[in-house]
């Protein structure tokens, strides 16, 4: 089986959309966003101005994706990346696919001179927390909040 991790491309639109719906609706149980909105998001990321998206392909089929958004740190007076998404289809979790997607995000962050990469995961997602620990990540001191 061949594994390729690369930037998402326009030709990936349908396969990436399918995997993103598996992530949004299947994994996180969120409502299905309109296809047009999802395609607009993918198109924005293809431009690589506000963020980037990577895909994992196994034998030519998209089996995962990761999304980095770019933002600023006032305290560091510099830009950093937010790994907003890291998703691999269920049967490939805890494999090199997951690790390679994560490492590609970290590599991109370092090569493009962002100060650091940050992300959050659900408090009950113990599997993801174990994965991040294994990858050498350090849990932060900040408490995460949000409003809707």
From TrEMBL:
Protein keywords: Acyltransferase, Transferase
InterPro entries registered for this protein in UniProt: Acyl_CoA_acyltransferase, Diverse_Substrate_AcTransf, GNAT_dom
UniProt entry tagged with the keyword Acyltransferase: yes
Positions of the N-acetyltransferase domain: 3-148
Superkingdom: Bacteria
PROSITE patterns: GNAT
Name of the protein this chain belongs to: GNAT family N-acetyltransferase
Organism of origin: Paenibacillus filicis
Lineage: Bacteria, Bacillati, Bacillota, Bacilli, Bacillales
């Amino acid at each position: 089986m061949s594994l390729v991790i690369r930037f998402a491309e326009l030709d990936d639109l349908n396969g990436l959309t399918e995997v993103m719906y598996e992530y949004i609706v299947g994994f996180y149980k969120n409502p299905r966003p309109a296809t047009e909105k999802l395609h607009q998001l993918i198109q924005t990321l293809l431009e690589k101005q506000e963020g980037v998206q990577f895909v994992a392909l196994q034998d030519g089929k998209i089996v995962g994706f990761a999304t980095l958004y770019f933002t600023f740190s006032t305290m560091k007076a510099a830009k950093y990346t937010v790994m907003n998404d890291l998703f691999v289809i269920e049967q490939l979790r805890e494999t090199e696919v997951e690790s390679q997607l994560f490492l590609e995000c970290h590599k991109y962050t370092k090569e493009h001179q962002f100060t650091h990469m940050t992300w959050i995961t659900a408090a009950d997602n113990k599997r993801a927390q174990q994965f991040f620990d294994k990858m050498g990540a350090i849990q932060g001191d900040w408490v995460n909040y949000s409003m809707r």
